[in-house]
Specification:
The complex is a heterotrimer. Chain B is mostly helical. Chain B has helices at residues 4-11, 25-42, 47-54, 65-77, 82-121, 127-154, 158-164, 167-194, 198-218, 225-243. In chain B, helix 1 (4-11) runs antiparallel to helix 2 (25-42). Chain C has a seven-stranded mixed sheet with strand order 3-2-4-1-5-8-9, with helices on both faces. The chains are: A mainly alpha, B mainly alpha, C alpha/beta.
Chain lengths: 230, 244, 158
């Protein structure tokens, strides 16, 4: 991101914000998935490869969480954009670990901002309780659109924060090659544990657990093949 | 009744005003507005209370919410007593949540995600990510459109239509597909990402992954992925600093 | 066997219940206790669709359920007890304090008279006091919507 021009930064900010709005508000089309958000951010920065890899690792982390019902969850969209901005333009082997670490922190901030947004929305509903009993659809419409506007502001702030943190990281964090590589390895290991742990929990007992084990066996064999082919 | 098209578009934002007090209620009311428009002229006495009902507490899977939206709108036109519509909405919410969450969040989404990761490891490019988005949204839009039109056509008989559909079965099967795909995709993605670091890199990563799975087992589900990831990175950094 | 989870949740069966708790706990049977649902065939049909293959569901009103707690526990299947209201819970606890020793408050939502205790838990003063009384009788009550959340004790909900 160090050499990115103003226009690219603006596009990144808008993409990060769109990923944020997509998570819960609209259109819920999976732009907020880290694999998608990270890849597009990498492409905008001219380094799709780094974006893909950062997105893939964060995607493995995201597989731990099922956004079931009303549960709180991290917001990986803007986080993946920030993480991709850190990794883009330098050898990904060295940038990935730091990028993922910052991405995880940003995703937690994003999850917290979502809680705050939901409270603000509830307050607005509470304030308009009497008007909602009037049966006038314009009250509903205004409340709804105002809530979406709130999420637009939240998502823009979050995307701005992500890019700011990415800039600070690129400017100030200097690691030797060995440490950078060790962090990348740790990030991949932890990500794999998250995906498998989440899958095991989600599978529960019974036939789904056997499907997971079968998949793991097939994946390990194919993984060894991939290793040999690369 | 007109307005199904506009209601469908508005449903894409059904969670746009998600809050702990009414959850998706306001979003449902927003999507119901075009559907209830004709009621304003045909049943002006009923219209305001129908609007109030449309925005009450509701929560279901967002992609299936249209089934409840359509069914309640149809019931308003069928002059079903208000309290029955309230009960219909309440009774639909939980099952539509359980079915939709199983189908999408615990089924199709992780299944496609696992497949995309596997494809990336096999050397596929960014187009896999585009395919992931397209495939998910194709299923999602088809399901959401079926849900709204089925709800609109069935009214109070929506339960029967839901039971006769492929949905309950698909919800069960997609869970197995998700478990398999994540099982395949995870080790493949790890192999792809660890390749530059050789056998020692793989050994370290496997060690960390094993520790993570053990920790998750020991601490119950409370040790979230984010926390474990940050812990693993933090310890690695510390070890490097100490041994340097 | 004893119930693997006794839960109060006014949304009854939904994603958190089926996926969040049902899968990791290996739940094989859900006992849904609600007077309205027990009296309504088409609502029961809807809830039957909500549970995955391999999980059975039984419906009962509160009074009938209180009489069947013993028989339900004699069954070898892993069962989750689910009720939508605090008064129903109080009645069930009185019938068998051992069976309902551990109680999970999973979700009670906004309604006039209730105030927010947690984002997913709104209680009237009466409901809160009923729960405190159950705790004085020996019940172990925590609020927790999903397994990955931190359980919250009654004291923090005042």
């Amino acid at each position: 991101m160090t050499g990115a021009d103003g226009f690219t930064l603006l596009l990144l900010l808008l993409w990060g914000a769109l990923a944020g709005i997509d998570l819960v508000s609209v259109p819920q089309a999976m732009f907020s998935r880290p694999l998608v958000a990270g890849t597009v951010a990498g492409a905008l920065l001219g380094d799709v490869g780094a974006g893909l890899r950062v997105g893939a690792v964060l995607e493995l982390f995201a597989l731990d969480v099922l956004p079931v019902g009303a549960v709180r969850y991290p917001d990986y969209g803007a986080a993946a954009v920030g993480a991709a901005a850190i990794a883009a333009g330098s050898p990904w082997e060295l940038g990935l670990g730091v990028a993922v670490g910052i991405g995880l922190l940003l995703s937690a901030v994003g999850g917290w901002s979502l809680l705050a947004l939901r409270r603000l929305n509830a307050d607005a509903v509470g304030r308009h309780a009497a008007a909602l009993r009037s049966g006038e659809p314009s009250v509903i419409r205004r409340l709804h659109l105002a809530s979406i506007a709130r999420d637009v502001v939240r998502s823009l702030l979050l995307a701005g924060l992500a890019l700011g943190v990415a800039g600070v990281t690129l400017r100030w964090v200097r690691l030797d090659r060995g440490t950078a590589a060790a962090l990348t390895i740790a990030a991949v290991g932890a990500a794999a544990a998250s995906a498998l742990g989440g899958a095991a929990r989600g599978a529960g007992t019974g036939s789904r657990r056997r499907w997971l084990a079968a998949g793991g066996a097939v994946g390990t064999v194919l993984g060894v093949l991939v290793w040999g082919l690369l | 009744m007109n307005g199904a098209g506009r209601a469908f578009l508005r449903l894409l934002s059904v969670q746009g005003s998600w809050n702990y007090e009414r959850m998706q209620g306001i979003g449902m009311g927003f999507a119901a507005e075009p559907l209830l428009d004709d009621l304003r002229t045909t049943e002006p006495g009923r219209y305001p209370e129908a609007v109030v009902r449309s925005a009450e507490f509701f929560n279901a899977n967002p992609y299936l919410a249209g089934l409840a939206l359509g069914a309640s709108a149809r019931a308003e036109y069928d002059a079903v007593p208000g309290e029955q519509i309230v009960r219909l909405r309440a009774a639909l919410a939980g099952p539509l949540g359980a079915l939709g969450d199983s189908l999408f969040w615990a089924g199709i989404l992780p299944a496609l995600s696992g497949l995309a990761l596997a494809a990336l490891a096999l050397g596929a490019g960014w187009w896999v990510v585009a395919l992931f988005v397209l495939a998910f949204n194709a299923v999602r839009l088809a399901t959401a459109s079926w849900a709204l039109s089925t709800g609109l056509a069935s009214g109070m008989r929506v339960g029967g239509a839901l039971g006769a559909s492929k949905l309950p079965r698909a919800a069960t099967r997609s869970g197995a597909a998700a478990a398999f795909a994540v099982g395949v995709g995870t080790p493949m993605a790890a192999a792809w990402l660890l390749h530059p670091f050789g056998a020692r890199g793989v050994a370290s990563a496997v060690l960390i992954a094993g520790a993570g799975l053990g920790l998750a087992r020991w601490s119950g589900a409370r040790f979230t992925a984010t926390r474990f990831g940050l812990l693993a990175l933090g310890i690695t950094l510390l070890l490097r600093l100490v041994t340097a | 066997m004893p119930f693997v989870l006794s839960r109060v949740d006014d949304r009854l069966i939904h994603g958190q219940v089926v996926i969040g708790w049902g899968r990791p706990l290996g739940v094989q049977r859900i006992l849904l206790i609600d007077d309205d649902v027990a009296a309504n065939d088409w609502e029961q049909d809807l809830y039957r669709m909500a549970v995955p293959e391999g999980v059975t569901i039984e419906f009962a009103g509160t009074a009938a359920a209180a009489a069947r707690l013993g028989a339900w526990q004699a069954d070898a299947r892993r069962s989750m007890l689910l009720t939508g209201s605090v008064p129903s819970l109080v009645r069930l606890y009185a019938a068998d304090p051992v069976a309902l020793h551990r109680i999970n408050l999973g979700g009670l939502h906004h309604r006039p008279g209730r105030t927010e205790r947690l984002p997913y838990l709104y209680l009237t003063p009466d409901e809160y006091h009923s729960l405190v009384e159950l705790e004085l009788l020996g019940a172990d009550i925590t609020a927790q919507d999903v397994p990955s959340a931190v359980p919250v004790g009654l004291g923090a909900l005042a």
